[in-house]
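Researcher: We are triaging several targets before committing to wet-lab work. For this one, the compound of interest is adenosine-5'-triphosphate. I'm pasting the protein sequence and the ligand SMILES. What I need is the predicted three-dimensional arrangement of the protein with the ligand bound, expressed as structure tokens, so it can go straight into our comparison scripts without reformatting.
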Amino acid sequence: MSENPQPVLRPVLRIEHLRVLHRDGGAPLVDGVSLDLAPGETLGLVGESGSGKSLTLRAVLGILPAALRAEGTVERAGARAAMVFQEPAIALNPTMRVGHLVARTWRLHHPGATRGQARDEAAALLERVGIPRARARLAAWPHELSGGMRQRVMIAAALATDPGVLLCDEPTTALDVRVQAQILDLLRDLVASRDMAMVFVSHDLAVVGSLCERIAVMRSGQIVEEGRTAAVLRAPGHPYTRELLAANLARRLADAATKGARP
Ligand SMILES: Nc1ncnc2c1ncn2[C@@H]1O[C@H](COP(=O)(O)OP(=O)(O)OP(=O)(O)O)[C@@H](O)[C@H]1O
């Protein structure tokens, strides 16, 4: 029988035995998380509120709150990581025009470039993330844009760093369902066209199911189950994953019933 081994790709992100702890002691908030991400791979990180998903992403990026510290290994193999946060209204600087934010971020990563080049790149990036009349919007303030457009600006700013890994922390939770779907389409398209890996934190298993090849389920700071998304959702091995699935299904059914009951 002939063997047909998969090429071994060097991971763009390797997390080993990551722990996040309070500086003044107590139980770890993230407790021994290990994950590998190949170039272009998509991983959904799910689990109930407080299970340690956001802190895992923040530890990868080195932006933990001052009261916390990380232990363990995070290797990025030269790939940059950029983060898209849940609430673009908070993450965006309200006193900076959106074009300036994107141009400035791009210029930080292209030191020899001129202001004019940075402006052109910013317009191209805003256009890439689906902002109509991008050049005219360079001068817009964040408050002049809708929530969905603001999240597109955040994604453009993340892309300006030319990341190998995009870390998304519930990037669509604050948006209405229609806009959510548009942003998910955009992320799907970006990951496919840029060979960018992505970690996508979400409560919503259906969203992860539609977006991510792999899934890791977190509970109390630990990964309790990990695998191909389709396999895990079809036949969850851990009781907690089954609970999460049941809770997700119940919520979806309740939402559908509420919508159906509207006059
Ligand atoms: N700055 C902080 N100081 C102390 N504890 C914190 C801090 N930030 C988060 N925590 C605690 O760490 C734990 C994990 O938080 P984290 O935000 O990673 O959870 P999460 O899984 O992302 O939850 P959610 O889905 O609600 O965003 C929680 O118990 C939280 O209360």
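Researcher: Any quick observations?
Model: The longest strand covers residues 13-22.
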